[in-house]
Structures are given as C-alpha cells and as structure tokens.
Design goal:
There is one protein chain. The protein is of the alpha+beta class. The chain has a domain of about 150 residues: Jelly Rolls. Helix content is about 45%, strand content about 20%. The strands form two sheets. Strands 1, 2, 3, 5, 6, 7, 9 and 10 form an eight-stranded antiparallel beta sheet that branches. It has a two-stranded antiparallel sheet with strand order 4-8. GO terms for molecular function: DNA-binding transcription factor activity; sequence-specific DNA binding. Keywords: DNA-binding, Transcription, Transcription regulation. This is AraC family transcriptional regulator. It comes from Paraburkholderia silviterrae.
Length: about 325
C-alpha cells in the first residue's frame, strides 16, 4: 500500500472512532467527517439509550464525551472500580488513549452526547506514532461537571450541527481543540511527574502561553462572552503585557485574541438563532456588539449569510 493510501486509510478510520457505539445500539446524528477540520481532530454527535451495551474494547484515542440533551444513567468500568453516574446536559466523561474498557452501558433513559476525539499527539504536544499505545497521562473520569468543558463542547457542537464550511469556523474549532487540550493537561492529567511533563511539553511544543495561562484566558472569555472583553482584560488574566500576550495567544491558538472572542460570539449567536426566538437586535445586545448592523455585518463575514438567512435555513 502506498503512503498516500495509508494516510487516507488512517484518516478514514480516525473519523469513525464512534463506530463502537453504533455497533452497540447507538445512533449517529452528525459527524465532522465532511467539514474539513484539522487532521486528527474529529467530532460525532450520537444518541444513546438503553440499547447501548458496549462489550470490552481498547480505547485507541483520547476522547471527551459531553452530554448535550436528555438524561441517562450510565455504568462503565476500566481497570478500577465501576463508575456510575447520571449523564445530563453539560456532564462530561474522559476516556484516555490506551485504556482497556471492560464495559459501558446505559441502564435507563436516553441522552444525545457529543464525542470529541483529540489528535493522537494532542495537537503536537506528544511525539508518538499513530499506532502507539502510549498512556498520555490523562485520568479516566466520569460525571465531570466543568463549565469550560461544557462551553467548549457546546460551541464545537454548534459548529458541527450547523455544518459551516468556512475558514473562520475551522480555525475556531482548532483553537477550541487546543484550548480544551490545555485545560485537560492543567486540570485532569495524572498527579506527579506525568502531569508536570505534559504541562512542560505543552509550553515547549505549542509555544506562546503555558497551559495554565491559556486555560485562565479561555475560561474568562467563555464566562464573559456577553460583556466588553478588551485585550487589556485578557492580558491581565494571563499576567502579561498586551504585546506579549497578543503574540503568545496567537502562537498558542492560531487566532488573535479579539478574533477568538469574535468567533466565540458568532458561535453563540448561531446557537441563539437556532434555539430561541430572540430578535436580531436582542442577540446583538446580548453578545455586546455595538449595534445590530455591526452584528449582521460581522455574522455575514464569518458565516457567509445574514443572521436572518441562517435562522430561516435552519
């Protein structure tokens, strides 16, 4: 098999990490396979109900699962004690690469869950091969209540279900993936040397902000998306000068700080247009645009259509 064919095969396989769920009774609702996201980072929205009963499987990729809607009682187990939890909107689970999962099943209820599959090397954080079974040092956790994971998941989920094929959308998704990785390294890596090594590697490989500073800034942006977020305020969260912060943030995420804020606001606007009857003026005000005209102009530039047209097509 030629190298090009092997690369295509690996990319195709990486898009279907969630096939274990479908084979065990779940239903695929949406996939990022046709959206042109960055290599190795994929997402799937699945519906899980009492038919989900996964037999033992080896986890080939670092996965973050975030409940979007519904509620279900879930049981799962790897090498430690059984994890039993209620999966409802915003609740997350982590399943690191290299874990042998003994079982996973839904005992009652149903839930739509966003599954995020991170690149094998965690966006260049690790120097490992695609077929490596290396334990990257993240914890196997269930029932996680983490506002930042929830917000990042909802934003990525909105980009997934909207099916937007724009450079701005793809840059936002990759930036969110990097931000999520930094947050996982900072908050959910195993204690001790493994955690320190991951955090150090993040700064050395990605450059720019270290994982702790980047996590603080991303948390700040998502918590104040409707407020006046200035470059000074973001730099203050990172404890850096404006110039140093702006350069480091772009090096870390691929977007300027204010471009990232705009992208998050537009993603939130898509959600409001899709899920509420709020007027264009109210959405513009809620997301701190100077006026509705500015909001419409920015939305059209980023998405390709006006907010009204976007709402109609949904």
């Amino acid at each position: 098999m030629q190298d090009h064919d092997l690369t295509q095969l690996r990319q195709t396989e990486s898009l279907r990490f969630g096939s274990k769920y479908e084979l065990s009774g779940s239903h695929l609702l949406a996939s990022s396979s046709s959206l042109g996201w960055g290599p190795g980072f994929t997402a799937e929205l699945c519906h899980h109900d009492e038919e989900l009963d996964c037999p033992p499987f080896f986890q080939p990729v670092n996965e973050v699962a975030i409940a979007i809607r519904g509620s279900a009682l879930v049981h799962r187990r790897a090498s430690g004690p059984e994890q039993t939890f209620s999966s409802s909107s915003g609740i997350a689970c982590l399943c690191p690469r290299g874990v042998d999962v003994r079982y996973l099943h839904v005992a009652s209820g149903s839930v739509d869950t966003l599954h995020l599959y991170l690149p094998t090397n965690l966006f260049g954080l690790l120097e490992i091969e695609d077929d490596s079974v290396q334990d990257v040092g993240l914890n196997y956790l269930a029932g996680v209540r983490d506002p930042l994971i929830t917000q990042i998941g909802r934003t990525i989920g909105q980009e997934l279900t909207s099916g937007t094929l724009t450079r701005a959308s793809n840059l936002l998704v990759e930036s969110l993936g990097v931000a999520l990785t930094a947050h996982l390294v900072e908050r959910y890596a195993q204690q001790g040397q493994a955690r320190s090594a991951l955090a150090k590697s993040f700064h050395q490989v990605r450059g720019g902000l270290d994982s702790r500073r980047l996590t603080r800034v991303i948390e700040f942006v998502h918590a104040h998306v409707g407020a006046n977020i200035s470059l000074d305020a973001m730099a203050q969260e990172a404890c850096l000068s404006r110039f140093h912060f702006a350069r480091a943030f772009r090096q870390s995420t691929g977007l300027t700080p204010l471009a990232y804020v705009t992208a998050v606001r537009i993603a939130r606007a898509k959600e409001l247009l899709q899920q509420t009857s709020s007027t264009i003026e109210d959405i513009a005000l809620a997301l701190n645009f100077s006026c509705s005209s500015n909001f419409v102009r920015t939305f059209r530039r980023e998405v390709g259509v006006t907010p009204s047209a976007y709402r109609t097509r949904r």
